[in-house]
Amino acid sequence: MQTYSFYRYALNGEIQKPFAREHVPISLIPKQWVDNVPGTVVTAVHAAFIENSEEDESMIVDSMSKYFNYSEFITGASVDDDRFRVYSDWRMHEDSFCRLVIQAQLDHRPNRRTAGGKVLQSMMELDKYRMLALMGLPFAQRLSPRIDDLNANLQNIMTSVNSADSHASNEELQRQLLDRLCALTAASLQLSQTSQHRLAASSAYSEITQDRIHFLKMEPIDGIPSMANFLQTALHPAQRTCNAVETRLASLIANSQITAELMRTSRTVDIQAKNRNELEQLQNTAKSQLLLQETVEGLSVVGMTYYS
Questions:
Q1: How far apart are CA 136 and CA 297, in angstroms?
Q2: Which is more confident, 239 or 12?
């Protein structure tokens, strides 16, 4: 994974429209180079660093909406012990970039630039890991119907197993059910193998996103939707969906393996019973042969005595 960051100082008047096509830093990068960047873009963000305008708190939404094409929904948060405030509408604009505004509060301490850089970097990482965490959701949604089909097949096999128990003599039916069950278990294991890393990565990225929210010390701003609540509201259902799919798949594998073991145990008991019956028959046959041999020997002794 690669991350590219480009910065430039805003000239006089540009800060009023920091996201104009001719003002963003990427406008200075050769278009051919941008078009030939390898790989797939996970997230692209334009960020503007502005000073506090000392406006009334009730006018925050109106003053910030101009940066987001006058969007009706803007989230905000106070970060770094209220030394900075961050705003975003978390949507892709016409240039395929999201937008982020970082507003420095009235603070003239020498390390403000360093602190602002850390806040900007953390916000960029927050957006990146948020998108990476959400990438597991479409995969989990595609996986869910497949798990439903396998569960339905398992239920049919279990029903057939119960029917086969009442007809234990039908060895061919039991063998077919066991073959079907082995194929289902193999398909479940294959799904688990292909999905395990992706779902685990989604869970890890979700935790990293939570860590970034705590690191930034996000606090709500009066009169504007909370950014932390918005991110968590969007992230938690997706993560729960991924966890639920992972749990269902693990349960499917466990149930299919248990059912297969029960069938193997049942067949083993049947085979042992048949072997015991065959041994009893062999034993009875041996007894009959021994009695016949004793009878023949007794007749032979009588015959020899008679002739003697």
A1: 85
A2: 239
